Amino acid sequence: MSGGGEHGIRLEAVRLGIDTRHEPVLFLRRDSEVARSEGFQAMSQVRVDTDTASIIATLMIVESELLRAGRAGLSEAAWRRLGLEDGETLVLHHPRPVDSLAHVRAKVYGAELDAGQFERIINDVVAGRYMDVQLAAFVAACSGERLTREEIVHLTRAMVGAGERLTWAGSPIMDKHSVGGLPGNRTTPIVVAIAAEAGLTMPKTSSRAITSPAGTADTMETLTRVDLGLDEMRRVVEREGGCLAWGGSASLSPADDILIRVERALDLDSEGQLVASVLSKKVAAGSTHVVIDMPVGPTAKVRSLAAAERLSGHFHAVAGTLGLALHIDVGDGSQPIGRGIGPALEARDVLSVLRCEPDAPADLRQRALQLAAGILRLSGLARAEDAVARATEMLDSGGAWSRFQRICEAQGGLREPPRAAYHYDVFSEREGTVDGIDNRKAARLAKLAGAPADKAAGLGLCVRLGDRVRRGDVLMTVHAESPGELEYALEYFRAHPDVITLSAD
Amino acid sequence: MSGGGEHGIRLEAVRLGIDTRHEPVLFLRRDSEVARSEGFQAMSQVRVDTDTASIIATLMIVESELLRAGRAGLSEAAWRRLGLEDGETLVLHHPRPVDSLAHVRAKVYGAELDAGQFERIINDVVAGRYMDVQLAAFVAACSGERLTREEIVHLTRAMVGAGERLTWAGSPIMDKHSVGGLPGNRTTPIVVAIAAEAGLTMPKTSSRAITSPAGTADTMETLTRVDLGLDEMRRVVEREGGCLAWGGSASLSPADDILIRVERALDLDSEGQLVASVLSKKVAAGSTHVVIDMPVGPTAKVRSLAAAERLSGHFHAVAGTLGLALHIDVGDGSQPIGRGIGPALEARDVLSVLRCEPDAPADLRQRALQLAAGILRLSGLARAEDAVARATEMLDSGGAWSRFQRICEAQGGLREPPRAAYHYDVFSEREGTVDGIDNRKAARLAKLAGAPADKAAGLGLCVRLGDRVRRGDVLMTVHAESPGELEYALEYFRAHPDVITLSAD
User: Would residue B186 count as lying in a domain?
Assistant: First the structure.
């Protein structure tokens, strides 16, 4: 065939510098021979091969002079996944049919899938063979109460099997996870410090924020280095018993990262997938004992105690099958925790609790102690009746603070979190009692002010539910790194002033 | 706020000449103020406003010099839908939350939706407020047997209501539709000619091929003009009783066009959505009487008589509620119909039947007469026992042929379909009886040869099931407009020689 070997036609790869997040996109000229002869249509799936790698990309057809003849442009995600260098040669094909889509269709039609079927689906998902619409159909078909417990177990196992898996010397390996974090609920650094100080092993990997104003990795990054390689993590954990690293460099349950992105776009609360998502990450990270933080409140992810109970039942059943020891702590999710919302502001709260400062946020301290007690109890180090006391002792003695400093030193040195240059105080316009703090709107306001990309940006809350305020009291402070972003957040606030509400009295 | 009025920041629109089919895509520089201050992330949804129009687009972030500062690039679909000119000003915002997604989630969780909920979903779909993943979740949630008959009725009504609706003087207004066409099943031009000649009104709008080697509009385009405006259609229909136009210029049930694209990507057979899709188009086109052609065969869309019966039940129930008179003709779908597969090749078959040529394909003639008889009967013009005879008389008298010529003249003149320059004959390698012709593989081969974009390209079948062939007989001919494309199709054929199979004897 003219110009092509086998089926494919060879084209020179060009990096276009277009960020499409996780979506590999291929750009071809309308008049390119391969587009015509293969009958590729815009937005169809195309297999892109190099000598060493192969991906499925979505095709966009260029009708202008953005691309020279004989070249194929690639988005950043496609470029990364193929590990390309400029000028390398690509060969394009129609993708092979994805056989596991038959199982997705069966699930859509209401069938119960077995372990092998979940495995084939998840392997194809991780190999990038699914289009977003196909991922969405799978997510929708597994949502609501559509997965049996057996299916949740199969799905979890398939997700673990499709990625890397860490192993650690000894046991127990402790871990924690928060389901649908409240803004400011930054207990993890405190819990790890207490657990490590108690002599436990807690190699904690955390994510960056995806839709929230801060993730644990964003917060820790204002205090120390978090992008540790696996060897560095091992070194830190061997020396200090714990670490606080960003989990993104290891490929743990990569299917979860792919599915979670689609679930977020759909805003679907799938209990089965939530359980598989959390537990697959934990098993892949090599954890043996896990404490789950489950805040319940009207603007939190889990909205009622009944929902918390059902979800807990799934967690326990699946964890049991996978051999994970599990403790679930159902807590109050009616308002943000701590004062700061945003990476550096939350880091200050964490430092303040660890340093046992007199004005440290009591709710953050209390929640962290509660979860740390869960860790001590689950590990067997403490009994139920004195676990909180043990955790408190570890914190109040300064042991947790010194352990935290040593962990940060081992990760590359402890630093002070940055401060924002621009502030705006929101004053109370009348006297009253605080009767509502909206988790979602508070998070939104912090993000509009620049969090998490601007590390110092965010919100500082000065009141909590039930507080009595007078006219002119400061309710909260907006922090931003530029006057434009401050104004932008305030514009939102003026349109949505009900972030904090007072009772009518 | 610096640089922006209200929320938005103003940017100059640039047409990038990137074809993304239906998907509006917005390209912004990473360092643009709006991307930073609005916190837009790649692949998030952005509302793009001009003074007169507003769309939701998917954002891609440009990190290279493809875009100059202060500019926003747009894909062709976005450009078209905003009706832009170069240099016009755009204002960008976060999109408003799409409230109807709550109904989609309810459907995913298994709820039954009411008329108002379907209406809100479909209106948002048509307004472009749904991302593809959200469309996919809706499609998946409605697939299998998940829609009740009441829901199918609600969905159909919502789809009709969300687009334009044609009205015609008098009644009945006849229409036909084929469910999952076999390759070559090009009966529509013949049926319209017979119906119009019988004095009926049949203002037929047809689609172009989406995944098949030819749609009726593609075939008719090789014979006459098909992109008629509504006024032109009316003029042709008033004069000749019928027309054969492309339906794309009128906005009839636009939700259907959007949903069908996602259904195809998922390869989900949703009976409820098929019924809503077909009947919403018919009601919107102003039709009162509809004949449905439902071929049944192992490689056709409807694969068994049981499936045909269930589907027919839905069709009759929903059509009844909508006040449509309906006749369903379940026919043989075991092999392609006629000889040609591809726009011009099928047009030749149509002309040959209309002209009553002695070697006209008997199966196409017979199928067209059967469906035309259904039209005559449903309209009340003929009784069941003599409807086929009436249709045959209309065809054999030359009346249908002369009516067809006049319709084409009214649409802009009848022309001869083009012929391909390159041919390849596939010979039988042995003696035997034809025992299989694969609809899907035959369609694939015709598409690889260039159909439907290359009008003269496609396949000419020389045998039918049960034919006795000798070694050296021609089984079929591949037609192409370039030697490269011919070779490309043949490469596929060499890898998949079982398009036509002979019994082992």
Answer: yes
CB atoms within 10 A of CB B423: 12
Smallest Cβ–Cβ distance between A132 and the set B17, B110, B132 belongs to: B132
Mean pLDDT of A23-33: 90
Instruction: State which residue of chain A sits closest to B446, comparing Cα positions.
Output: A39
Residue B5 covered by a domain:
no
Nearest to A137 by CA among A318, A302, A268, A276: A268
Our CA-based measurement puts residue A2 at a distance from the nearest CA of chain B, in whole angstroms, of 6
Residue-averaged pLDDT of chain B:
91
Q: Which residues of chain B does A66 touch, with a Cβ-Cβ cutoff of 8 Å?
A: 16-18, 66
CA distance B154 to chain A (A): 21
The answer, yes or no, to whether residue B456 has pLDDT greater than 80, is yes
Are A255 and A191 contained in the same domain?
A: no
Q: Are residues A403 and A257 in the same domain?
A: no
Residue A5: its pLDDT value, please?
40
**Contact yes or no for B140 and A140 at CB 8 A:** yes
Which residues in chain B touch residue A145, judged by CB atoms under 8 angstroms apart? 109-110
| ipTM, interface predicted TM-score of the complex | 0.80
pLDDT at A194 (0 to 100): 98
A48-69 pLDDT, tens digit each: 999 988 888 999 999 988 899 8
Whether residue A198 is found in the same domain as residue A271: no
* A169 domain-assigned: no
| Cβ neighbours of B227 (radius 10 Å) | 13
In terms of domains, do A201 and A290 share one? Answer: yes
Spatial separation of the C-alpha atoms in residues A247 and A412, rounded to whole Å: 17
Residue with tokens 């194809």: A124
Domain boundary residue among A52, A74, A93? A93
Contact A21 B43 (CB under 8 A): yes
> How many folded domains does chain B comprise?
4
Q: Do A134 and B266 touch (CB under 8 A)?
A: yes
Give chain B positions within 8 Å (CB) of A484.
1-3, 33, 37
Is the Cβ pair A266, B63 closer than 8 Å? no
CA distance linking residue B485 with residue B471, whole number of Å: 27
CB contact under 8 A, A268 and B137: yes
Question: What pTM did the predictor assign?
Answer: 0.83
Find out whether A89 and A125 touch, Cβ atoms under 8 Å: no
Report the CATH number that the domain containing residue B438 is assigned in CATH.
3.90.1170.30
> What's the pLDDT score for residue B8?
58
Neighbours of B265 (CB within 10 A): 20
Whether B269 sits among the annotated catalytic residues: the reply is: yes
> What is the arithmetic mean of pLDDT over B171-184?
90
Q: Does residue B46 lie in a domain region?
A: yes
Top-confidence range, A439-448, B302-311, B368-377: B368-377
pLDDT at B181: 64
Helix axis angle, A230-240 relative to A399-411, nearest 10°? 150
Please check whether residues A278 and A218 belong to one and the same domain.
Answer: no
B311 and B385 part of one domain: yes
Band of residue A24 on the pLDDT scale cut at 50, 70, 90: very high
Task: Judge whether A160 and A280 are in contact, CB under 8 Å.
Answer: yes
Please tell me whether residues A186 and A332 are part of one structural domain.
yes
Q: Which of B390, B411, B432 is the last residue of a domain?
A: B411
* Cα–Cα distance for residue pair B195/B182, rounded to 1 Å: 22
Torsion, CA B222, CA B17, CA A45, CA A41, rounded to 10: 10
Look over chain A and give the mean of its residue pLDDT values, rounded to a whole number: 91
Is residue A234 located within the same domain as residue A259? no
Kindly compute the dihedral angle of the four CA atoms of residues B279, B281, B287, B288, in this order, to the nearest 10 degrees.
20
Asked whether residue B381 carries a pLDDT value surpassing 90, the answer given is: yes
CATH of residue B359's domain is: 3.40.1030.10
Alpha helices in A163-212 (DSSP H): 188-197
Asked whether the beta carbons of residue B60 and residue A109 sit closer than 8 angstroms, the reply is no
Closest Cα in chain A to B452: A39
Q: Per-residue pLDDT averaged across A262-275, rounded?
A: 83
Catalytic residue, from B269, B363, B386, B473: name it: B269
Mutation target vs A (from B56, B76, B488; most A CBs, 10 A cutoff)? B488
Verify whether the Cβ–Cβ distance A266 to B20 is below 8 Å: no
* Domain assignment of residue B483, given as a range: 422-502
